[in-house]
Design goal:
9-stranded mixed beta sheet, two-stranded antiparallel sheet, 36% helix, binds uridine 5'-triphosphate
């Protein structure tokens, strides 16, 4: 079945980016000239997704406003002949049909996804985490959708990480199916060294079967007292087919300070207005250090 819908959980408290995220949602912090959430919506739209649900909370209404029209500003830009800016803010508002639902209590990623049950209905859907921004030639979520459709399975996006850091991620038990695609028979969140299945870690992108909702509904709180998506997926992969896609692209965790700065620098180096200037600046800085 075709994947037409996406869910972006963005209701986390962003405690790793405080104090900035006390009143500004971390998904709205700019990576050069666009908020992080825009890159994610653009990735979904480029993969052919038309309907997107953002899971938010009471402190995140800046996101709803961002993807809305803003007539006063548009009139002003029009009168001032600022055509480029006008076209861009309209393009942003028209990227996709965006829906919102609130996660009324911060009970974990699994709980946030469960809030999408009514929106999704009975079809497979994409999940893009609100703070994982990807850089790739082909949209990462599109790579997963292709595999999910081919194998008629759920799909998780993975990449290899060092064995010294796998304990911070979800480790996947993999069986090779074809180049870059594996069958998944088990997975474990934040494994202790003796629990590690492989150094393939899940990194922020999923295509899930609607069967996940029944699993999430009956899940006990796990790590950190939260309803963990990966606990649900470890059940799901025993009940239904699941594949892992070793996706092509670079992932930035913009929900922590170092990942946020890496993304900012890399994106600014590629940006036509800042690229050359930043190269010069970094060269000078390098000599000073
Ligand atoms: P994170 O753990 O990276 O986000 O959750 P967080 O909870 O905001 O981060 P810190 O640790 O406090 O800094 C992964 C994704 O799941 C969402 C987050 O918004 C992020 O996209 N999430 C997490 C929810 O939507 N609801 C939750 O209850 C928890």
């Amino acid at each position: 079945m075709k994947v037409r819908k996406a869910v972006i959980p963005a209701a986390g408290l962003g405690t790793r980016m405080l104090p900035a995220t006390k009143t500004v949602p971390k998904e709205m912090l700019p990576l050069v000239d666009k908020p992080a959430i825009q890159y994610i919506i653009e990735e979904a739209a480029a993969a052919g997704i038309e309907d997107i649900l953002i899971v938010t909370n009471r402190a995140k209404s800046a996101m709803d406003d961002y993807f809305d029209y803003y007539p006063e500003l548009e009139t002003r830009l029009n009168q001032g002949g600022k055509d480029r800016e006008l076209t861009e803010i309209r393009r942003v508002a028209d990227l996709a049909n965006i829906f919102y639902v609130r996660q009324k209590e911060t009970k974990g990623l699994g709980h946030a996804i469960w809030r999408a049950k009514r929106f999704v209905g009975d079809e497979p859907f994409a999940v893009l985490l609100g703070d994982d921004v990807m850089r790739s030639d082909k949209p990462v979520i599109g790579q997963l959708i292709e595999a999910a459709e081919k194998y008629e399975a759920s799909a998780v996006g993975v990449q290899q990480v060092g064995l010294d850091v796998i304990g911070k991620y979800c480790s996947v038990k993999t069986e090779a199916l074809e180049e870059r695609i594996f069958g998944v028979s088990d997975l474990v969140e934040k494994p202790r060294p003796e629990q590690v299945f492989s150094n393939y870690a899940i990194l922020g992108r999923y295509v899930l079967s609607p069967g996940v909702f029944d699993v999430l509904e009956n899940l006990e709180p796990g790590y950190g007292g939260e309803i963990q998506l990966t606990d649900g997926l470890s059940k799901l992969c025993r009940m239904e087919k699941m594949v892992a896609v070793d996706f092509e692209g670079r992932r930035y965790d913009t929900g922590n300070l170092k990942g946020f700065l890496e993304a900012t620098i890399d994106f600014a180096l590629e940006h036509p207005e800042t690229g050359e200037w930043l190269q010069d600046f970094l060269r000078k800085k390098g000599k000073e250090l």
